[in-house]
Design brief:
The longest helix is centred in the middle third of the chain and has 16 residues. The chain has 7 helices and 8 strands; from the N terminus they run βαααβααββαββββα. α1 packs parallel to α7. By secondary structure, the protein is of the alpha+beta class. The chain has one domain: Hotdog Thioesterase (Thiol Ester Dehydrase, Chain A). 31% of the residues lie in helices and 26% in strands. This is Thioesterase domain-containing protein.
Amino acid sequence: MPISALSTAEATTADAAPIKTLVEAITWEDSISTPKAPEPSALESELQQQLETLDIVKAHVADNTQWKRRAAYSLVTDDYRVHHLTAGTLRGDNKLGVSPALFQSLDESQVMSVLHIGLSMCGHPNITHGGLLATLLDEITAMTAIPNLPGKTGFTANLNINYRHPCIANQFVVAHSELTSVEGRKAFVKATLKTLDGTVLADATALFIAPKIPVSQIAEQLTLAKTQTAPATPQPEA
């Protein structure tokens, strides 16, 4: 259930705070501090350079009348990044090996992302695991739904996926999502995953719902729940 994987250059401290608060709420207060993300490897740097030369990326960069480029996961704090599924856990050589090229339409009704899926993301040999494709579809639909929801925060309520073609590993893929409708606290989105040559790998429809109560209150409730269920600290013997 992504909170937000998309950020804008215009995001204010107030905009970012609820997301950071929710991230903090699902982290133990007394947990051991975690290191920052490592520097890009030689393979990641090479793939990142290849990404920027792809025709679809260059075309979206040039088309500033319809698209604006966004930074993926910039609202995920450094200390939490290593625990974040797509920005941290699944990032790295032979996994999700690059920072996606991410574009949002000017009216915020569409999002397009180009990313690389490595060899270590397989189910069958050399075929990307369907669960990973589901994760990518969940992410891309969230990136479209959330900016259009009240409070710009929401959670996945439903995700329906059709797998159309095996996704061969070690290639760039294109994820695209489009807002279908907004009904109060509900946002309906459709999405596709394609190869660079246009082969449809999977498509999906999704429903996202904005919470009734403020995210800060959800964070407080989660923090309280974790505090109440945390194991007691052993006391030294007298």
